[in-house]
Amino acid sequence: MKTKPNALKIAGRKSRAGLQNGHPVVPLRERRLNFGDKWDYAPAPEESKNYLIAPRHELFINGKFVKPQSGKHFPSINPATEEKLTEIAHGDAADVDKAVKAARRAYEKVWGKMPGRERGKYLYRIARIIQEKMRELAVLESMDGGKPIKETRDVDLPLVAAHFFYHAGWADKLNYAFPGRTPRPLGVAGQIIPWNFPLLMAAWKIAPALCCGNTVVIKPSKTTSLTLLRLAQIFQEAELPDGVVNVITGVGETGTAIVQHPDVNKIAFTGSTDVGKQLAQMVVGTGKRITLELGGKAANIIFEDAPIDQAIEGIIAGIYFNMGHVCCAGSRLLVQEGIFPTVVRKLRDRIQTLRLGNPLDKNTDIGAINNKPQLEKIRELVQSGADEGAEVVQSRCPLPARGYWYPPTFLTGVTASHRVAQEEIFGPVLSVMTFRTPEEAVERANNTPYGLSAGVWTDKGSKIFKIVSQLRAGVVWANTYNKFDPTSPFGGYKESGFGREGGLQGLAAYSRLD
Amino acid sequence: MKTSARLRPGGQTPTLRSATFPPVAATQRRITPQTTVDQVMVEERAGAFAKRSIKTSAKLAGLKLAISMMDLTTLEGKDTPGKVAYLCRKALQPAAPKYGVPPCAAVCVYPNMVKYARKFLGDGSPVKVASVATGFPSGQYPLRTKLDEVRRAVGDSADEIDMVIDRGAFLDGDYAKVFDEIASVKEASGPAHLKVILETGELVTYDNVRLASEIAMQAGADFIKTSTGKIQPAATMPVTLVMLEAIRDHFFATGVRIGMKPAGGIRNAKQALAYLVMVKETLGDDWLTPDRFRFGASTLVNDVLMQIARTVDGNYQGSDYFSLP
């Protein structure tokens, strides 16, 4: 029973007159996908009218909203429209002192000596209220920070609740977390968080601190204070004892005042490497503990044997998620040379299907750049890439007239010596580079002052284990990217900081182990 | 006995490619290994399309587009000319004229019903006649009888042939046999369009779906189609995505645009819109046409019509207000 191969017969039959098997053949140069408006999606905005934003927001000290000592406020802008959303209190050193005193009192009198199972009940309650108000918080987060509602709804808020649930679960089991050691609280934790994931970073900081019996003075970024203050209202609703969490809004100096306050026992900072270094110097010799989660320039390594179409999705998720305002963004793409043309062609097509616009539209993939200085920094760095000879590829999507916007962008022809390959851009901009062998991939991936995260794409499991063990990065994703979970510790090597958040290691960062 | 021209994933595919396709620019002639599919990420990506929010005008336009892409199907042992008549009339005029709904793309029937379908639709009908063939649904028949079936269906003036691949041969690794059968059926189909059913529910892995898609397209398929509807699971979003990606890569490699037909399991308007979103964002506007994308379905049509009526009239109507196919 032989089957007769008739491939040759087919071959002989087709290539006449631009036809193949009777199909018209599109010439090589004209082969492109047409992502036009044949069937365009109508606007699908999330309802936002019912969520009222007070015209002015005060500091949250000792369980109450109080005016700043200076009496000053600054405007908070919606980056998608450049309209003023509200006014935020400008806290200074005097307000910080009040907050630290309240936190100290709460620590000494209530929270520090409360049994873990009782603390856990508060955390569960907070987590459940967050779940109930998820839609509102997601809308506010999108309006305040420019993040697409799809992401705040499906990523930020579920993770915020998950962090409170996770740490609520630990609160009465801390004595079993570190065998042979007894964890004790540190005291008052001073926390400074960035603007890229305002609520999520607050959850990463507040939940483990409270779980371990510490009290908190926390400062949000100047551009994104709104949702943390809404979270403070949730603390009130949960009847969290006064002073356990205090929110001081303000500017850089406000953060400095927290770090320099003599009665703060622990500093946790997420933000830029420059500021992190300054803060680290401030605490030298003070006995304060410090954990830093700083910048990154992660390598996303795509091997020839990777599942390419899925790797493309991983590249997209790695760099365009949250407009690239992600410290662990996969901003350096390392592609094995053999598949470089294919990957670039697919990326070119894929960024064309990303929808940029109103962050509250449920179909928006790319929202607004969080603030104007950041937009200028992105522009400046892309220009430097072009000046240094890289080819800039951008989505042709139209940009809204008002607001801060930057289209999904990648640069090819980038080498390790380009600025765009070295500096953190913190925007929707990907630098594409190539490598030849696995050894070279590892060498190039590690060739950065940072070490927060990395990605590896290959169909071969053994290769994953081999490469991952050689990468000097705190988080390495294999065949996926930008996946977060409260059980998994997160943190960096080298200039990406030290200390871990999440998981057991995250608990240790808020405990003294006796 | 296996032939010497066996195809294996990652192995001999390029040999065949070079024999099949005319030489093109040097960059296109590089030998790339058979690409693999990652299950977790492809399912995540497919799920993302269903999250698009399709409202108002986009919804109405999408639903009408979906109707125009439907292959209304009846594939039962109890099919009669009378039943086929119902189906044909429904395909020609799915809803009252005031809704402005286009006719369906085709009716899909067993070979014995082709001549009746042609009679009810007439010549030059906007609705095509598609016939399943090649020992549908199992495909476990000798090639000779399969080809005979195809020739008869085409002789009865079927416009389209929906063949099944030999899954036994595929899972046995005899890819050349699969290829050759498709090529032979293509030849026997003559002017009729050939849709090749992979029966993805029996191929099980996404890697298999990807390879079978590649073989079918290289062997001469005009469309690749997920399922017979007789095996569960039938069409799913991730399986369809894997096939759309294979079509995309085939287009860039050869310049030929192959069509896609998910069949079975698409039961409501919301699912249909999610598939259209997937086509739009994977292959673009050139595939948003009945010439390149079809839904194989028997019960989908009235759910879509119900949503169209809801969008136009502002309220839902009961199922008795929509004629049965």
Explain the overall architecture.
By secondary structure, chain A is of the alpha/beta class. Chain A has helices at residues 7-14, 93-111, 116-132, 134-145, 149-170, 198-211, 226-237, 252-260, 273-283, 308-320, 340-352, 372-387, 419-422, 438-446, 461-470, 503-508; strands at residues 19-20, 23-24, 56-57, 59-61, 64-66, 73-78, 83-89, 183-185, 188-192, 215-219, 245-247, 266-270, 289-293, 299-302, 332-336, 391-394, 409-412, 429-435, 453-457, 475-478, 497-498, 511-513. In chain A, the strands form six sheets. A seven-stranded mixed β-sheet of chain A has the order 16-17-18-15-14-19-20, sandwiched between helices. In chain A, strand 9 (188-192), helix 6 (198-211) and strand 10 form a beta-alpha-beta unit. In chain A, helix 2 crosses helix 8 and helix 3 runs antiparallel to helix 5 (149-170). The longest helix of chain A has 22 residues, at 149-170. Mean pLDDT of chain A is 95; it is low at 1-16. Chain B is α/β, with parallel strands linked by helices and 325 residues long. Chain B has one domain: TIM Barrel, CATH 3.20.20. In chain B, helix 4 (81-92) links the parallel strand 1 (70-73) and strand 2 (106-109). The longest helix of chain B is centred in the last third of the chain and has 18 residues, at 237-254. Chain B is globular, with a radius of gyration of 19 Å. At the A-B interface, helix 1, strand 2, helix 10 and helix 11 of A face helix 1, helix 2, helix 3, helix 8 and helix 11 of B.
What is the ordering of alpha helices and beta strands of chain B?
Answer: HHHEHEHEHEHHEHHEHEHEH
Strand fraction of chain B? 5-15%
The shape of chain A, in one word, is: globular
Count of beta strands of chain B: 8
Major sheet summary line of chain A: 7 strands, mixed
Q: Any idea of the CATH class of chain B?
A: Alpha Beta
Q: Based on the structure given, which CATH architecture of the largest domain in chain A is correct?
A: 3-Layer(aba) Sandwich
Count of alpha/pi helices of chain B: 13
